[in-house]
């Protein structure tokens, strides 16, 4: 493919991605308004889904709905709450983690197909070239840090696809970075349901959890300083 034809092809893919984004945003607004715009609607949705999720095919259905929710930019946190309400802790964690890993991974692949050819050459010549180089050289660690620090920040799923990070590095780093996020939200939700008074926060297991969370945060900050402060050469 010659240069003019490639440029036209890249532009067409960008326009298609923007059109797809508009459709996704409209669908997202409908889903949020219809099912998740208030705690009352969240509870109604949860009550409606629970009998289905308790069937033999329930785990597969839950993972599928989680993936779809991520792809349409829905309220992903809600599905952690639903999973934590329906399934035992570790089963809920595995199902949520699988759904989030696949959903964010598919978002990355869609972005890689539509945006990478158009934006990557521009990134390599912009002020973000150092960041892009770090993603290429230390993709797993960088993606782990981004996901662990920014939690479920939705633009990550689309923006990183336009960089030079490898698919394998993204998938591994993203999946590992999701583990503490899903565990944190799920654990806090389960604890919120069981704590009956302020004194319950001071239970040894809760103090141990908070200490572990602080230690993890410190570790992330140390790693972030080490990798994000690297000055790449032109």
Low-confidence stretches: 230-234
Overall structural domain count: 1
Q: How many extended strands?
A: 0
Looking at the structure, what is the overall shape?
globular
How far do the termini sit from each other?
29 Å
Q: How many helical stretches?
A: 10
SS strand fraction: under 5%
Question: How is this structure best described in words?
Answer:
The protein has 234 residues and is an all-alpha fold. The chain has one domain. It has helices at residues 3-36, 39-53, 58-71, 76-86, 89-123, 129-137, 139-150, 155-159, 167-194, 204-228. Helix 3 (58-71) runs parallel beside helix 5. The longest helix is centred in the middle third of the chain and has 35 residues, at 89-123.
Question: Concise description?
Answer:
With 234 residues, this protein is an all-alpha fold. The protein has helices spanning 3-36, 39-53, 58-71, 76-86, 89-123, 129-137, 139-150, 155-159, 167-194, 204-228.
Label this structure with key terms:
234 residues, mainly alpha, 10 helices, 80% helix, disordered C terminus
